[in-house]
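Crash report, auto-generated. Payload:
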Amino acid sequence: VTAAYRTSSGVKVQLTERETLVTQLFAAHATARHEVECVVRPVPAQRILILVYRALHGSYVGKDKYLLRVLLIDPSLSLYDSDVESLFAQAMLATPERAIKVYVNAVTNDPSPSMRAIYQAVVEELACQLPE
Amino acid sequence: VITSRYLTSTGATVLLTEHERSLVGRFFLYAVQRRSAELAVRVLPEDELLMLLYGTVSEHGDYLLRPVVVPTFRRFTTSDIDARFDSSPLQGIQETISLYAEALHDDPASAYRNAYRAVIEEAACLLP
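Recovered output after restart:
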C-alpha cells in the first residue's frame, strides 16, 4: 500500500502501488482531455478502481454546469495509451444527475451481486459530486 | 478479407473481416455467460471500432441493453473483455438512447461519436 486516500463520500481507502500507477496513468490522459480527477475509489475485492473525472470543456460546461465521466478499471490489466483513450471514450460524459441515474439503474438491473456493490459505490461517490 | 455478412436491427448489412468475426465471437461467449443475447453488431471501419449491443431481460420483465464499443486493433484478454462489459451498465432501451444522445451533444469531439450514433440507431429499432 503506497497511498492513503479519502473519497468524496468519506470512505477511507488505501491504494496499492499498482492502483497508484494506474490512477496516475489515467490522470495524465484526463489532463490532456481537459478533464480533472474528482474521485478515486478502489474496490479491492472486485479488482476494480472507480475513477470519476469532471470535464472542463464541452457544450454543457459552465460555472454551475459540468459533466462527469465514470471509469471502472481493473488495475491488474496491462494498459497501453490506446487502451486508456478507448476506455475514456467508451465512458461517456454525462451530467451528474444523469450519471447517478445510470448507476442507480445499474444497481437494480445487474444480475451480478458483486457488480451491484461496485455500482452502489459509484452512486455514493457521484452523489457527492452533485451541485449544492 | 471479408468472411461474413451480418444484418443489424436497423436493416444495415454489415461485412465482417475474419478478425472482426473472431472478436464478435469472443465477446458473444462472455455475453452468454452474463445471460445476455447479442442484438446488433456494427462495424465502424474508419474509426477501427466495433459497436456490439447486447440485451437481457430484467427480473421485472424489462428489456435492458448493454452497448460495448471495441477497438478492432486491440487483442483482448479474458479480463479485458470482462472489464468492457462491466464498464457498460445495463440500462433500459429509452435510458440508453437518452444517455448516448446526451453524450453526443455534450461530447461532440469524442472519438467514439460514430459509435454513439450507432448505439442510438440500433437501440431505437428495439423500442416497442
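Post-recovery validation: Residues 2 and 31 of chain A are 23 Å apart (CA to CA).
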